[in-house]
């Protein structure tokens, strides 16, 4: 689990990122979770946008993606979900203690 200090640090890094995935009418599916897992391995920190036409609640979407990809939910701001997962091969982000 991330500490409050680590979450604040990740939020500051995520501020300049653009969402690279969108969850729409179809909701969350296995293929999307797989792609998000791969993106997290490459980038460690990503944003996912929840579109207006999504049938699921954004908190449920965030939980489902985080659980499916073994990622930490950093924050939900508006319709954007910020996720973090430490990369096994390309570690770039050093978290404060």
From TrEMBL:
<protein>
    <submittedName>
        <fullName>RNA-binding protein</fullName>
    </submittedName>
</protein>
<dbReference type="InterPro" id="IPR017924">
    <property type="entry name" value="RNA-binding_YhbY"/>
</dbReference>
<dbReference type="InterPro" id="IPR051925">
    <property type="entry name" value="RNA-binding_domain"/>
</dbReference>
<feature type="domain" description="CRM">
    <location>
        <begin position="1"/>
        <end position="96"/>
    </location>
</feature>
<keyword id="KW-0694">RNA-binding</keyword>
<dbReference type="Pfam" id="PF01985">
    <property type="entry name" value="CRS1_YhbY"/>
</dbReference>
<dbReference type="InterPro" id="IPR001890">
    <property type="entry name" value="RNA-binding_CRM"/>
</dbReference>
<dbReference type="InterPro" id="IPR035920">
    <property type="entry name" value="YhbY-like_sf"/>
</dbReference>
């Amino acid at each position: 689990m991330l500490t409050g200090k680590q979450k604040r640090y990740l939020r500051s890094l995520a501020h300049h990122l653009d969402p690279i995935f969108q969850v729409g009418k179809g909701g969350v599916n296995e293929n999307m979770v797989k792609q998000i897992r791969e993106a997290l391995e490459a980038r460690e920190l990503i944003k996912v946008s929840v579109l207006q036409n999504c049938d699921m609640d954004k908190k449920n979407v965030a939980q489902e993606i985080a659980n499916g990809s073994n990622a930490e939910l950093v924050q939900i701001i508006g319709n954007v979900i910020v996720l973090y997962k430490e990369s096994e091969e390309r570690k770039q982000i050093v978290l404060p203690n």
